[in-house]
Each structure stands twice: as structure tokens, then as C-alpha cells.
Amino acid sequence: MESSQTSHAPRYRFAPSPTGALHIGGARTALYNWLLARGSGGTFVLRIEDTDRERSTPENVEQILDALRYLELDWDEGPLSQYERRERHREAIARMVETGDAYYDPATSADVREWKKAHGGAGYRGEARKEPVGAVRLRVPDEGETVVDDAIRGEVRFENRTQDDFVIARGDGTPLYNLAVAVDDADMGITDVVRGDDHLSNTPKQLLVLKALGTEPPRYTHLPLLHSPGGGKLSKREAAASVQELRDEGYLPAAVRNYLALLGWGTEDDTTLISTEELIERFSIERVGRSPAVFDARKLRWMNGRYMRELPLDEYERRLAEHLRGRSEPDAAVFEAAAPQLRRTACEIVRDKAQTLDEAWPLIRFLFAKPVDDPAAWDRVMKPDVRELLAQALDALRRTDGFSPESVEAALSPIPERSGKEPKDVYQPIRVAITGTTVSPGIFDSLAALGREESVRRIEAALSRLDA
Ligand code: GLU
After folding, report:
1. Distance (Å) from CA 109 to ligand 1 centroid
2. Is the distance from the beta carbon of residue 17 to the nearest atom of ligand 1 less than 6 Å?
3. Half-sphere exposure of residue 61, counting CA atoms within 13 Å on the CB side?
4. Atom of ligand 1 at shortest distance to CA of 185?
């Protein structure tokens, strides 16, 4: 009984062309297919459409796999190479010539242009030959329509009369794209094709190939394009945001999945923060909108910050260490060599301050290394009149009982009032003294994490520099 159930389980696929890195749009397509497969007990197939031999390099394939691994979108079958199936594609073409569904055509592209000029708006029909001369074309019926029954667009109709008999193999026998995609979808038993809108115009061709193969077509879903927040197509720069860039900038995969899911899909109650488990449960094509989804890098960043704040500390620490290893070996070494308690405290005080892992490290680096040398920050904050305030702070920090954030606060907070200054007039110089910069986690947390001895030493050093 179980096996008959599994044989009806849907089969989804992600079919990237490895011509470059995986970008936002492609990642969304991959995620949607993965969510649908995981939510239905179906199968997620990864097929690499590498028939363009010039642009499909092993490095590009590796980049895509790497991006999917980072996003934690695991596949059940594959990666299958479309190019390696070329014999099967040739076989399918030969069969179609045999049955008369396709034919050889000696016409050159100039001949085709000529023919079309002479025949008004009609789709090209070649001089059908059975013997191998020229390209192979699939025969398109003269009458009727090819109808794409799209889950989002509804029925999209293409008049057969205006469709060219299209080339499925070049003169040298090389199988072409629409042929390969349709044969692979059929052979792999794909039940659902979910992909970008830009493939809608290929679909009638693929339907005709499937018909020639005698295979039931899959259900089609074409996802609306992505737009910029200002409207209009996603700008080159935004669209170029590759998944690897997001990883390098320290985005958490769970946050990226959450964000990508909302690019075109949403819950009835417009929930923004949705765990992956919940996405698997709730995601459905019915709730994918028809209008272009808006990619807003700032919202992604905000969302990532929310996920960062929710991370358990040990995971935060593990992810930060991993991130640093990818970014800078020396920084990673410094972080990993530090005392476990210091690493933990650093993560604790920065956790709600950084929106990405990349942002976290500069904020806590001072705990593991000497203050950075930032002359602009120094000049802006360390005016002659801060000398007296720093001296008072130093004195208070030397004498306070204990060195917890609370005792540090109790020691320092009377100083602004006593000297008729704003709190920031006192705390910014201390911050520059201990970190070298003007940004850090809360000043009491920062001092407490650094400890009395080192805090005192750095403030003393700042005072000497002011005196010099
Ligand atoms: N290989 C195509 C692409 O990367 C996708 C084809 C498909 O999903 O059918 O755009």
C-alpha cells in the first residue's frame, strides 16, 4: 500500500543552467520547489542544464551546489547532468523523425527569413525530408492551439498556426534546449514544473515535444519576476546579489529562506517571521501572487537581524567562528584561541546589536585584539576637554567593587551629572579609549567584558596619548 502511495507522490525539480553564480531569483525557484517537495512527501530532483558547453564550467556547477548547500536545500536525486544524457536526446530525436513528428530541413536561416516574408505572419513550415540534411524541426500542427494551463496565470493560449516548426537538433546533430528539457522532465517523471516567468514562452514548445513523446505533461507554475522596491525590474546590482554574497556577508540561511519564501508568497495573516518547518507546512502555490515580487535588500537585512537575536548563544558562537574562517583566517584564529568565557560573553553582548555575522565581528574585535587605530574617530571624540572626564572614569573604575556591567554602570553614571555633561560626552571617549572606534556594544557591557585590568590599561594609554 505504501508503495502505491509513494508512486503518486509529486516530483519537483530545480534545473539551473550553470552559467554563473546562483542569484536571488534562482534561489527562490529552488526554495519553492524544495518546500513543495518537503511539504508533500515528494521528491526534489536537481538537474544541471549544462548543454551550453562554453558557459557550463565545473566551477559554475560547484558554485550552484555550494549555494544550495549553504541554503540547506538538500536534494533527493542528482545532481544529474543534462549534457550526459545527450545520447538519450539524440535517440528521442531519431524516433520523432521516424514517426514523422519531426523532419530534416536543409533550409538556412536566410531561407527561413525569406519564407516568412512570403507567408505573412505564419509560423515557418520547412521542406520536410526524411534523410539527414540540415537541422531537425518538430512539426507544429497548422490548426488549433497549444494551451499552457499555468497554476498562476491560468490558461495561456498559443496559436499553432503562428508557431514555427522549431529546431530540436542542429545540423551537426546537437540536441537543443527545449527538446532536452522536455525529454528530461518526461524521463525523470517530473509531475510539477515550478520556474521563472521567463520560461513561459518555451512552454508551448516543450508541450509539443512531450506530445510527440506520448507523455502526459507536468503541471506548470511560472513565478512572477522580481522587481526593485522603487518599481521596475530588479536593478543589475540588486539582481546580481548572489547567494554566495549573502553567505559572505554573514546572512543566516534560515533568515534567507524565510525572506525568499515571502518573495511572491504570503500567509493569510501576512506573518513575516516564519520558521522553515512552518514554511514546509504552509507553503502553497495557491497563495503565490500574480504580480512581480519586490526584492528589498533592506528588509532582508532587518529580517536577518531578527534571526540573529533569536540564535542560542552556542549556535551564535559556532556560526560566527565558521563565518570568520571563511572571511579571515587571522581573525578566526584570534577568536578561536580566546578563552571560552570571553567568546561567550562577546556573543552575548553583540547578539542584539548586529544584523549580520559580518557586522558582529568589528563590534567585538576589541575584546580579542588591541584597539583599532582609527584617527578620524580619535580626532572627532578626543578633544582636550575629555581629559578630565576620562581621568574621573579611570579613578571610578579602579575603585569599584566587582566589575559586572551593573557595578561599572554604578561607578560611571554619577560622572555626567557631577560634571554637568551629557552621558555620551563621558561614554564616547571611554569607548574610543577601549575600542579605538565609536561603535561597540553597550559601554557597560563592553567594559565588563574587557575586564578591569585591560580597561584601566587602555584608558591610561589614551590619557598618555592625550597628554602627548
Ligand atoms: N535551465 C533553466 C534556467 O536556468 C531552467 C529551465 C527550467 O526550469 O525548465 O533558467
Report:
1. 26
2. yes
3. 18
4. 9
What does the pLDDT average to over 243-269?
95
Statement to judge: residues 294 and 345 lie in one domain: no
Contact 49 CB / ligand 1 (< 6 Å)? yes
214 C-alpha to center of ligand 1: Å?
A: 22
Atom of ligand 1 nearest to the CA of 29: 8
Same domain, 406 and 443: yes
Looking at residue 3, its pLDDT comes to: 43
Q: What CATH number should be reported for the domain holding residue 448?
A: 1.10.10.350
Out of 130, 205, 211, 236, pick the active-site residue: 236
Expressed as residue numbers, the domain containing 358 is 311-362
Annotated catalytic, 299? no
- Report residue 237's pLDDT band, with 50, 70 and 90 as the boundaries: low
Nearest to 425 by CA among 443, 447, 410: 443
In a domain, 228, yes or no: no
Residue 304 falls within a domain, yes or no? yes
Do 334 and 411 share a structural domain?
Answer: no
Do 393 and 443 lie in one domain? The reply is yes
CB 18 less than 6 A from any atom of ligand 1: no
| Whether the CB of 192 sits within 6 Å of ligand 1 | no
User: How much distance in Å is there from the Cα of 17 to the middle of ligand 1?
Assistant: 6
Q: Is 15 in the pocket of ligand 1 (CB under 6 A)?
A: yes
What confidence tens digit (pLDDT) does each residue in 153-188 have?
999 999 999 999 999 999 999 999 999 999 999 999
CATH of the domain at 275: 1.10.1160.10
Q: What pTM was computed for the model? A: 0.92
**DSSP notation for 376-407:** HHHHHH--TTHHHHHHHHHHHHHHSSS-SHHH
Measured distance CA(363)–CA(181) in Å, rounded: 49
Q: Are residues 350 and 381 in the same domain?
A: no
Residue 37 lies in a domain: no
Whole-number Å distance, alpha carbon 338 to ligand 1 midpoint, is 47
Does a structural domain hold residue 434?
yes
Backbone CA torsion sign across 373, 375, 379, 381: negative
* Whether the CB of 218 sits within 6 Å of ligand 1: no
Alpha carbon of 181 to ligand 1 centroid (Å): 8
Query: How many separate domains does the chain show?
Result: 3
How far is residue 282's CA from residue 274's CA, in Å, rounded to a whole number?
10
Q: How far apart are CA 58 and CA 180, in angstroms?
A: 20
**Cα 468 to Cα 456: distance, rounded to the nearest angstrom:** 18
